[in-house]
Amino acid sequence: MPAPLDTAEKITQYAHPDRLVSTDWLAQHLGQAGIVVVESDEDVLLYETGHIPGAVKIDWHTDLNDPDTRDYIDGKGFAQLLGSKGIGRDTTIVVYGDKNNWWAAYAAWVFTLFGHEDVRLLDGGRGKWIAEGREVTTDVPAPEAVEYPVVERDDVTIRAFKEDVLAHIGNGPLVDIRSPQEYTGERLHIPDYPEEGVLRGGHIPTARNVPWATAVAEDGTYKSREQLEAIYQEGGLGLATDDEVVTYCRIGERSSHTWFALTYLLGFDKVRNYDGSWTEWGNAVRVPIVKGEEAGEAPASLN
Amino acid sequence: MSPPSDASSNLPATLAEIREDFLALPERERLQLLLEFANELPDLPERYASAPGMLERIEECQSPVRAFAEVDGDGVVHFFATAPAEAPTTRGFASILAQGLSGLTAQEVLDVPDDFPMSIGLTRAVSPLRIGGMNGMLTRAKRQVREQVAARS
């Protein structure tokens, strides 16, 4: 039995209003049976400093990644993880996190790879909850483990690999959601500060640059449907909801935020996130890149 | 998992002790110790609070961190850092270096093995990518010490 939907006007405007909840909604429904709140942050210690009461922590790096292969955990690992957090297959999961939900959206994307039906994002994330002076606690819940079925991960529908992106160039839109400096190739890294170590700067040929934050209002929530349409659809990037779109960034976390907006807020059917993103593409052998502000053409060698 | 052999040598007592404290704990509990370090990070001294030269802002994914290693008139190093409350991991790393490097001689700081951050048992609990932030701070601290020593000779 899924939790009731948030009927706030802003949220009902979106294509899939069952995917987003406001802080008001969460405050009202906190602690209800069938809902588990998950915090997923960039900073692995942030949850320990205080979190929404009852929320469990799932860390993208240490919980969702396979330690031995550069990939996500498998169906068995996922079942074990979610079950241990008291999440069943029919649980309503509300995910929130720091940095306007970058990692929360990333976690939601991974949950969706396993087809978890009811995953919602908390609009505005951790920042908004705290800015509103709502309750936080350092008490860590000890949920009773529940049975979660072993489900095979679907790596086709919303996930793109390097080979998929190579085949996609020239055949469909690519959205690069990094900063303009990363897109042009001007910036690779900050002096003396190791990032994810990329050999070349630039972007995937034909990719257009719409930094992820373009979708975010000042309070960290998603912009209204109308505003998002003006950014990504007619009058903006010009995408159509039946376009096959691939999003990417540097490791796939910020582009999950855009994947979420296109898919659930605007109703695009076929958006895939390329989680290898620039750390893979910028280092890979025999893949073309484009430097500068122009999107560039599909290289003839790919046809 | 035994620490890399390089980190065992040349490690000043304070850093060696910090490492032992981490390694003595089960992996999950190491985060709690890192949080304690985060909470212990002293405020930036007033004289550095607004110095733009030492502000090394980390764009995008990383949290803004300000850090500076100072070599005083007696050749002793002091490491100061600040990071926002929303970045406890960064604060924890900075605090480890503040406690571990402060009081050392310039040469002792330069001799700290570069892989120290990788050797304190946090790569799995925190993830190697995040440890990169601490590597960066250590690298910067060494560079700052080197520059100050060079300027005086």
TrEMBL record, chain A:
Residues 31-138, 168-290 form the Rhodanese domain. It comes from the Bacteria. GO terms for molecular function: thiosulfate-cyanide sulfurtransferase activity. It holds the Pfam family Rhodanese. Keywords: Repeat, Transferase. The keyword Isomerase does not apply. It catalyses: thiosulfate + hydrogen cyanide = thiocyanate + sulfite + 2 H(+). The keyword Repeat applies. SUPFAM superfamilies: Rhodanese/Cell cycle control phosphatase. This is Sulfurtransferase. It comes from Cellulosimicrobium protaetiae. The lineage of its organism: Bacteria, Bacillati, Actinomycetota, Actinomycetes, Micrococcales.
Automatic annotation (TrEMBL), chain B:
Residues 21-143 form the Fe-S metabolism associated domain. Coiled coil: none annotated. It holds the Pfam family SufE. InterPro entries: Fe-S_metab-assoc_dom. It comes from the Bacteria. PANTHER family: SUFE-LIKE PROTEIN 2, CHLOROPLASTIC (PTHR43597:SF5), SULFUR ACCEPTOR PROTEIN CSDE (PTHR43597). Belongs to the SufE family. This is SufE family protein. The lineage of its organism: Bacteria, Bacillati, Actinomycetota, Actinomycetes, Micrococcales.
